[in-house]
Amino acid sequence: MIVKIYPENPNPREIQRVVEVLRGGGLVIYPTDTVYGLGCDINNAKAVEQIARIKGLNLKKDHLSFICHDMSHLSVYTKALDTNIFKALKKNLPGPFTFILPANNNVPKLFKNNKKTIGFRIPDNPIILEIVKELGNPVLSTSIRDEDEILEYTTDPELIHEKYANQVDIVIDGGYGDNEASTIVDCTTFPFEIIRQGKGELQE
């Protein structure tokens, strides 16, 4: 199913529809401020494992990211943040960044990798932020990649729907996506290390 939601004014009824699918263990493809993402409720182990199978991910080794709706939501899942990290997050979020931070015990065991870290995103996109806020839990975030040699990411939600219709429950059409992923910043070292330079220019 493809659902049209406008970023300027997300329809609460459509947001609720997506949230109900997530609560029921469904998989959703959604827009962000960078590329389209594939996600589920982080507390639904079966849905998380399904995404891992679709993407060929190893939950213990591969870095996965959570989408939170604001800083206070993010802080529920991280260890106490020092001043430098807090300032960097405040200055750059919402925005096209994934910040790697130390995870606390609120992060489901399924995600506990050897380093005990998780990537966190607060994208500058009202659609996914409203969904996460309404859901009350973070949404797992992994990018929709393309096998195309030129374009790394599919930007057209109609084409995404064609490709993933049999694997996910809802594709949200929030307009064309970007073709550049988020900038990944490792905040477990100081100075911070940029693991991947993407769309975001880090303001320190």
TrEMBL record:
Matches recorded under SUPFAM superfamilies: YrdC/RibB
Family annotation (PROSITE patterns): YRDC (PS51163)
Pfam families reported for this sequence: Sua5_yciO_yrdC (PF01300)
Gene3D superfamilies membership: DHBP synthase
GO-annotated molecular function: double-stranded RNA binding
Domain of life assignment: Bacteria
Start and end residues of each YrdC-like domain: 12-200
PANTHER family, sorted: DHBP SYNTHASE RIBB-LIKE ALPHA/BETA DOMAIN-CONTAINING PROTEIN, THREONYLCARBAMOYL-AMP SYNTHASE
Protein name: tRNA threonylcarbamoyl adenosine modification protein (Sua5/YciO/YrdC/YwlC family)
Organism per entry: Natronoflexus pectinivorans
Top-level taxonomy: Bacteria, Pseudomonadati, Bacteroidota, Bacteroidia, Marinilabiliales
